């Protein structure tokens, strides 16, 4: 572990490496030390919805098809409106973090939403 590396958000010294990212267990912040100084919006630059419209933090989107929630019997119905999205740099393609009423916090792929 790199002893002089601290979390840029809470300055905790208890950080660990997970793949190419560093993770802070105290505040759950993840970052890439090589990309230091880049805002999160630039990291998620070019995120577009199913129709090709650019998305940004704080946008409202509508789910365009029924989506099964992995590990649950819940389904996010097509037409569900999601407010105040946050763009993330999801390695598995889930590049939208949001909170859906009745389901809770989850990640979505931008290919399954359209800008509202």
From TrEMBL:
It comes from the Bacteria. Residues 7-32 form the Protein YjdM N-terminal domain. Residues 34-58 are annotated as: Disordered. Pfam families: YjdM, Zn_Ribbon_YjdM. Keywords: Plasmid. SUPFAM superfamilies: Prokaryotic SH3-related domain, Zinc beta-ribbon. Residues 47-116 form the Protein YjdM C-terminal domain. Residues 35-44 have a biased composition (Low complexity). Gene3D superfamilies: 2.20.25.10, SH3 Domains. InterPro entries: YjdM, YjdM_C, YjdM_N. Belongs to the YjdM family. This is PhnA protein.
């Amino acid at each position: 572990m790199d002893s002089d590396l601290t979390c840029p958000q809470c300055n905790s010294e208890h950080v660990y490496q997970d793949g190419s990212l560093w993770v802070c267990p105290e505040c759950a912040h993840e970052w890439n030390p090589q990309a230091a100084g880049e805002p999160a919006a630039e990291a998620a630059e070019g995120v577009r919805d199913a129709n090709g419209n650019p998305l940004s933090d704080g946008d409202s989107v509508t789910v365009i098809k029924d989506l099964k929630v992995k590990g649950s019997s819940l389904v996010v119905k097509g037409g569900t409106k999601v407010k105040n999205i946050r763009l993330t740099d999801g390695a598995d393609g889930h590049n939208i973090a949001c909170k859906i009423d009745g389901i809770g916090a989850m990640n979505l792929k931008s290919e399954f939403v359209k800008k509202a």
